[in-house]
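ok so for the tutorial part 2 we go from a plain amino acid sequence to predicted structure tokens. step 1 is just haveing the sequence, like this:
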Amino acid sequence: MKAPAFPTQATWLNTAEPLSLEQLRGHVVVLDFWTYCCINCMHVLPVLQRLEEALADQPFHVIGVHAAKFDQEKDAANIRRAVDRHGVKHPVLVDSDHDLWQQYAVRAWPTLILVDGEGKIFDQISGEPQFEDLLRRVSTQLDVEKTRGTLAEKKLEVVRPDEDAGRVLSFPGKARILHAGKPDEGNRIAIADTGHHRILLGELTVKDGWPQIASLEVIGSGGVGRQNGNFESASFRRPQGSALLGDTLYVCDTENYLLRAVDLNEKQVRTVAGNGEIAGEPDWESALNTPLRSPWDALAIGDAVLLAVAGSHQLWAYDPAAGRVFPVVGSGREDHIDGSFCEAALAQPSSLAYMGPYVVFADSEVSSIRVVDFKNDQVFTVMGRGLFDFGDEDGPTNHALLQHPLDVVAHPSGLYVADTFNNKVKRIDLEDRTVETWLGDGGTQALCEPGGIDTTEDFLYIADTNNHRVLVVRIADREVRELSLPL
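step 2 — the prediction. this is what the tokens look like for a chain of 487 residues:
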């Protein structure tokens, strides 16, 4: 089948000029139909990066086709930020109206369409591909093109725009207050400087009534990797949430698919769970031999660490004493189903926080706030409904809508939600069962896809992800200040 042509008026990212299949004659092309909210799509990106590196000298290109799920994902500026945030280097065509999606008869995210040197579709993969299998398919086709005499003699050069640089923070994903219940003075904050692949650990003080960072430790070299060692040599790959248990800070090393333990006394980092893979048979007796699919947040609970494992649509537990990691909540099916731990279905859980005797979490792909009742082995929903029930509506919790929230925190005045794709913070009044917009107007200047939120008695701390900053908000009057970092 001949591959449908790219729309001539399409918006392109990561290339100085639009591309066409005619320009790519003689090349093998992988079209990656994706949307930036989707954890499975995120899992594909490093596979494609490896493929591009392996075939860097071959007439081969990857082209992303971004076909949005959420309204927020239709805007080219937001897609550009996501491309930057995830380190995507290949060209991306914006297909917000799903025109190309429909022409290629795509049915799900992610889907890869493989196009040969004559502009014909020769293969298709739905779901997460294995690198070795994808490399084999593309390499085989390159050999076919060479035998046919249809292989381009020279690879088409794609000129990419210059990248932004020099930010103090880069796409901070989470900001965690480490001693819940303590005042800001003498507390500590762990900031996931996600785009810089490191954790910033700050000592908080109060000056003129506002929290400030008195001193700051940098955990991680800033390079991409999974190296253990001291704070200067250790490396991460886009870390997210963290939790303090004793003198150890447990860090979700999200895109390395690992859980890392940071010894704050010895100033050493080591891997304690995950084998760096997202597929394969788990070894329930060994945390280090068990695949961990994109752990996104952590919460110390007793002598264990609870994990929001977004890629498995489950909550897991890590037992440091036994060296084991295992699922606790959720069947693994991506859906919105309440009930017992084994029957409940979650959809990309992205945060964890205490709410009295319960644990509350943002279930991002179903735009819901949900609660775990460990005493009664139950999951129930505070607000939200299903995979395609999203929007920006305040009011009663049974009618209000969120859009891909990534965090929630409990405070005596209610639940504060990082309503990420609405560029807002919303407050849920648990007594009245109502939802209100608490901060942000939906534009990107006040907040831009905030991914993290935490609280002390008097202040909220917000990881304003796409604005590359952490904000402090006084709860009493909603005055906002940026948290200055002594870097």
